[in-house]
Amino acid sequence: MSGGSGTRFWPRSRQHKSKQFLPILGRKTLISQTIHRFGNIAGFSNVYIIAKKDQASLLHETVPQIPSSQFIFEPEGKDTAPCIGLSVLYLQKKDPEGVVLVSPSDHLIGDFSIFKKTVRSAEALAKAKDGFVTIGIVPDRPATGYGYIQFDEKVGEYRGIEAFRVKTFAEKPTLETAKRFLETGDFLWNSGIFVFRIPVFLKAVEEFLPDLYDGLMEIEKYFGHPEFEEVVTRVYRQIRRVSIDFGIMEKASNVFTIRGQFRWNDLGSWEQLYRISPKDAQGNRTEGEVILLDTENSYVASSEGLVAVVGLENVVVVHEGDVTLVCKMDRTEDVKQVVDRIARRKLEKYL
């Protein structure tokens, strides 16, 4: 899934080039890393990208190894349930009984061999249980920027990895709640990576999201028809915005999880990038022309020109072209609200 706008990574992530198209902590863009990762597991001919129409040229430029026939475009973003639903319509033409893995395109994942083993385990579990499998990440701290998965009884082992039934999904918690989650030992971070068989997904959409199901069936009728794109646009205008977590996962009884022991970070905020970046003796991470005086535990970056910071601690300062962001490290989740305000004030050139 490559349609996200990465608003919490503003101002580096902008409408013309959002987070997944940026080289963060390396020379390769996040989406290139994602395509390479899954191409080496499933084969590049089985990797499909769903994105917004206005990202088409950027996709061709960034991931030339993926042919146009494996690009799927949404007319507008309506969250993950419609996004995955439209993708499944395309994929079932290739294999109506196929197993699908859905993943965001902008996450950092390490320990490839462990990740590959985890994916194969999720595939085996999805087939054996005819259910949904979500890969949970073993938490190493009480993070407030992630959703959580609470698991229940063990249902077996698949490819050497234990599998559990999901008890509940929890939204991003407060710090105190996150601490309680870790104390119980039965909560995982929600990675947003799901595995399922196509018939299982469509049956769940029909049961829990009937309006979306009707829309998808309308779209399916027009595959190969001259009016196909027009129909997709019309259906998308009518369907409601809903995530797969809220729309299906929180309601279905056939949802399972396995624990991912690989290194993972969703890079959901500047604080997350700072956390995993190399730092100097004062705990600072700098990029570009930067001068620091009596400054500690901060992330300061400039794409052009000089940025000087004096006497501050635990801040993020990012100068990107015509925009500068300054915020406390513990408020980086709120950068999205700044982007929302810019949009409301119709200052589009800064988005």
SSE layout:
Blueprint lengths: L29 H13 L6 E4 L3 H7 L8 E4 L5 H15 L4 E4 L5 E2 L2 H18 L2 E6 L10 E11 L2 E10 L4 H10 L2 E11 H11 L1 H12 L6 H11 L5 H6 L5 E6 L3 E2 L4 H7 L8 E3 L2 E4 L5 E4 L4 E4 L4 E6 L2 E6 L6 H10 L7
Parallel strand pairs: 1-2, 5-9, 11-13, 12-14, 13-15
Antiparallel strand pairs: 3-8, 4-10, 5-8, 6-7, 6-8, 7-9, 15-16
Helix pairs in contact: 3-6, 3-7, 6-7, 7-8
Question: Could you explain the architecture of this structure?
Answer:
The protein starts with 29 loop residues before the first helix and ends in a 7-residue tail after the last helix. The longest helix has 18 residues, at 112-129. The protein folds into 2 domains: 7-268, Spore Coat Polysaccharide Biosynthesis Protein SpsA, Chain A; 271-350, no CATH class. The chain has 351 residues and is of the alpha/beta class. It has helices at 30-42, 56-62, 80-94, 112-129, 175-184, 198-208, 210-221, 228-238, 244-249, 270-276, 335-344, and strands spanning 49-52, 71-74, 99-102, 108-109, 132-137, 148-158, 161-170, 187-197, 255-260, 264-265, 285-287, 290-293, 299-302, 307-310, 315-320, 323-328.
